[in-house]
Design brief:
Length: about 350
């Protein structure tokens, strides 16, 4: 089995899953090549068996202009069994090559279908995305294959790393600092939970606004901006509660990663979590933008360790039953084989 990936993401949950899946394929003996952006911090985490080519993806760069030719040439010379584009813009580079299945993997709701003119099958990581592409007119094949994460438990990072008292409740969130991720709502929630510390792992365009909000609300002394971390598992293991407050979240890889480390989750009622979370069973769910509701949910877990332990245990069961590495990898390999 030979597979080529086109992936031009930067840094975040989608990129972590890309690395997980590529490495899972490598463990199963799949020969792979991948075209990615230069200087990605996660490149060295990819199996050395994978042939990596780097290319800029800026619209007016020489690399970007030559990419369609490069992808077509790679397909014709290497003759893969499958071509896999990650996200709509990468799908625009899918060559019109007839010798294999051409897949576009979607982790969000595409606004239109013209990205996929050379795609045979859309692989959507939630049923909601699959329903959306059908609603906007996609007539070719659709499969729902979700994500998995690394389930290895790791040692917790020392709280001293982020100047946090050992006896304080630690709430963690992570991702790109953009408005839809809801970090502003979470800072407002922390202001309603005396004594709780908030660790924000990530970075982005909203960082300055978030720092100012923490100052304005008088909680800057309890909010820690940790920046991007190569391996977030040790931070998740140290946290008492993980909160995802996004207004739009197609799946929520960060929830799966939290469950893998045994950390209870509070989530907004965004698209992905509503598919696989059950309020009060494997997590607590709060209306989007409801800072007071998030504060109450955080306090509920912080004040009763038994609730947190039960939610974390049920969350881990959901992870292993619905999002296992073996099941997800098998589903992709079955798809590749069925279209040969």
């Amino acid at each position: 089995m030979k597979l080529v990936h086109f992936h031009f993401g930067k840094d975040g949950g989608a990129e972590r899953f890309f690395v997980h899946l590529v490495n899972a394929f490598a463990e199963r003996g799949v020969e792979q090549k991948a075209i990615i952006r230069p200087d990605r911090i996660w490149r060295k985490d990819i199996s050395p068996s994978v042939g990596i080519k780097e290319s800029h993806f800026r619209n007016l760069s020489v690399d970007r202009i030559l990419l369609p030719w490069k992808t077509a040439r790679l397909a014709k010379t290497w003759k893969p069994d499958a071509l896999m584009a990650w996200a709509p813009r990468a799908s625009e580079l899918m060559p019109n090559y007839k010798g294999c299945i051409k897949i576009s993997r979607l982790g969000d709701y595409p606004p239109r279908l013209d990205y996929f003119r050379n795609t045979d099958c859309l692989v959507c990581n939630t049923p909601g995305i699959a329903a959306h592409v059908r609603e906007i007119g996609w007539k070719r094949d659709v499969e729902v294959i979700s994500n998995f994460t690394n389930t290895e438990r790791v040692a917790a990072v020392s709280r001293a790393t982020l100047d946090t008292p050992n006896d304080a409740p630690v709430v963690m969130s992570m991702g790109r600092f953009v408005e839809r991720k809801g970090f502003h709502t979470l800072i407002e929630a922390i202001a309603k939970v005396p004594g709780a510390y908030l660790w924000l792992v990530g970075d982005g365009e909203e960082r300055e606004n978030l720092e100012k909000l923490a100052i304005d609300l008088g909680v800057s002394g309890r909010v820690r901006f940790a920046g991007w971390q190569k391996d977030t598992r040790a931070f998740l293991a140290a946290a008492d509660i993980f909160v995802m407050a996004s207004s739009h979240e197609p799946l929520g890889n960060v929830i799966l990663e939290s469950w893998a480390q045994g950390t209870p989750v509070v989530s907004s009622r965004s698209e992905g979590p509503q598919w696989f979370m059950r309020d009060g069973e494997n997590g607590l769910m709060v209306d989007i933008g409801d800072a007071e509701g998030f504060g109450h949910a955080i306090e509920r877990i912080a004040n009763d360790r038994q609730i947190g332990s039960r939610l974390a245990e049920r969350g881990y069961e959901t992870l292993m039953n619905q999002f296992s590495k073996q099941a997800i990898t098998n589903a992709y390999l079955k798809l590749f084989a069925s279209k040969k």
